[in-house]
Amino acid sequence: DEIFFTSGGTEGDNWLIKGVAFEKAQFGKHIIVSAIEHPAVKESALWLKSQGFEVDFAPVDKKGLVDVEALAGLIRPDTILVSIMAVTNE
Fold this sequence. Notes:
PyrdxlP-dep_Trfase_major, alpha/beta
């Protein structure tokens, strides 16, 4: 077990999303993030798309809740990461 410290949430999001993607790329290159993710997550996912990963955005309803059925339909055998924000301050 290890603990890593970052300068803040944005750096942590970038590090985690990109790190997991490259670490798990041997199993697939498909990533799902919710349509209302923090910009650090969304921009990291879009950067990964420019690097050859496939990115899908899980839709949300008017209250910001993820459409679970739509999310389930996006998951594939080559999906290596699903990032869904639990709480937003916006």
